[in-house]
Design a protein that fits this description.
four-stranded mixed beta sheet; seven-stranded mixed beta sheet; alpha/beta; globular; 449 residues
Length: 449
């Protein structure tokens, strides 16, 4: 007997109606019949009707290690029994300890760390630092980018489907480079692509005039559909920025902590010009607890001419979770697991997509895989196909995400917890292959509307 049988008022359908009655229309939900996730363990979660799912999205790349990881839940429980909250106005031992560790692994010399509660707030802080340090409100961002949902963050977001207003306190300049296989430079080889994008940046900076504060870039664009430029692109950008004294902000909210497998931070694929001036992080470090933050060299971090605090950033409970989670990540070499198991998963997905007209490309790094869907025989993004595949996968017990550019959600986003096993990777790939083949058959012959 299900939970819904015991309590009809608590059924997913009733809860959905209550959700729509009291929450904003723009607060998106997955699936035609949204599910309520009640608990999880390892790489699996269960809904309110008792159905078990293999979780290949991890709460939008946030459950980085595993659901109900004992080391994290124990640390949270023990800290909660001592004290839940003090604020940054008091010394906070867990915050200092986590800051020391993040500063050490950041790659930024003489690093300072400021904790927030989300990636959005982290990017807000990075923008505050850069514009204050440079005395400029000009920001360069990549097309197809996403940096959060606050007023300033949507003002630098290059993906229009996630930027609801053009009003902004910032002057944002958008350049090419975030998407390798679309746009005017797509047919170039990697070296020529980097040169063309770098020339585009230099030309944009020249036309803008004034002193640009910073370039902000995701090493792998998350909401944009797990797209990226060639390795070394951001290093080439850094050289152009240096000529003008502009800063480089690396948005590592989705790429940090070893998820790409090859590197601990996404910026390390572009390390020829050294580390970024500012690095932002969030999501995975808390394994579900609300942690975000900014790392910057002391000169930049300390440039603010006024006092500031964070009421909830760096709270004892979230810092306890972060420390325990980082311990587990490093002690179990989850970056190496992301490289090994992620490589196998990408190979399996590419093999599954071979010959399917609905699949344009399978791309990714480590445990970040994107499957881009298009109308048969065209290069046109097909969000309806992505929704169908997502529904079909859910029916067979697999949860995946969506994203993409061109104002569409036509890319399936696959990002399991970093403890994913080979057997689970194979199981998920098999379910996704079935969903893709079913969708390909059902949709073949349908013409653009």
């Amino acid at each position: 007997m299900t939970t819904a049988d015991h309590d009809p008022a608590g059924s997913p359908k009733v809860l959905h109606n209550r959700h729509r009655a009291v929450l904003p229309d723009w607060l998106a939900l997955y699936y035609d019949e949204p599910i309520e996730i009640t608990h999880g363990e390892g790489r699996h979660v269960w809904d309110s009707e008792g159905k078990r799912y293999l979780d290949f999205f991890g709460g939008i790349l946030t459950t980085m290690t595993a659901h109900a990881l004992p080391e994290v839940t124990k640390a949270v429980s023990e800290q909660a029994q001592r004290i839940l909250h003090t604020s940054s106005l008091y010394l906070d031992r867990p915050m200092v300890e986590l800051a020391e560790r993040i500063a050490a692994v950041s790659g930024i010399p003489d690093a300072r760390v400021f904790f927030t509660t989300s990636g959005t707030e982290a990017n807000d802080t990075a923008l505050l630092l850069a514009t204050t340090y440079r005395r400029s409100n000009q920001i360069v961002a990549l097309r197809n980018s996403y940096h959060g949902r606050s007023f300033s963050a949507v003002g630098i977001t290059g993906n229009r489907s996630w930027s609801p207003t053009s009003l902004s306190p910032l002057q944002t300049l958008y350049v090419h480079g975030g998407v390798r296989t679309r746009g005017p430079f797509a047919e170039l080889d990697d070296a020529a692509f980097v040169d063309a994008c770098t020339e585009d940046l230099a030309d944009m900076l020249g036309q803008a005039g004034g002193d640009v504060a910073a370039l902000i870039a995701e090493p792998v664009q998350g909401v944009g559909g797990f797209t990226s430029g060639p390795d070394g692109l951001l290093a080439a950008f850094r050289e152009v920025l240096r000529e003008r004294g502009a800063l480089w902000i690396s948005d590592e909210v989705q790429t940090g902590w070893g998820r790409t497998g090859e590197h601990f931070w996404g910026w390390q694929a572009h390390a020829q010009a050294g580390p970024p001036d500012i690095l932002t992080f969030a999501k995975g470090i808390g394994n579900g607890m609300s942690i975000g933050g900014v790392v910057a060299r002391a000169e930049v971090m300390n440039c603010l001419p006024a006092n500031s605090i964070s009421t909830f950033g760096g709270s004892p409970v979230t810092m306890a979770a972060g420390n325990a989670n980082l311990n587990y990540l490093l002690e179990h070499d989850l970056q190496g697991n992301a490289r090994r198991v992620g490589g196998l998963l990408l190979e399996r997905l590419r093999a599954a997509a071979a010959g399917l007209g609905v699949v344009r490309e399978v791309r990714g790094r480590g445990l970040m895989a994107g499957v881009e869907l298009v109308r048969h025989g065209t290069d046109e993004p097909w969000p309806e196909a992505a929704s169908l595949v997502q529904e079909l996968a859910r029916e067979r017990g697999l949860l995946i995400g969506k994203g993409g550019g061109h104002s569409t959600s036509s890319v399936l986003r696959v990002a399991p917890p970093l403890t994913l096993t080979v057997a689970e990777a194979e199981e998920g790939a098999e379910i996704l292959e079935h969903a893709l083949r079913t969708a390909d058959t059902q949709l073949e012959g349908k013409n653009p509307q």
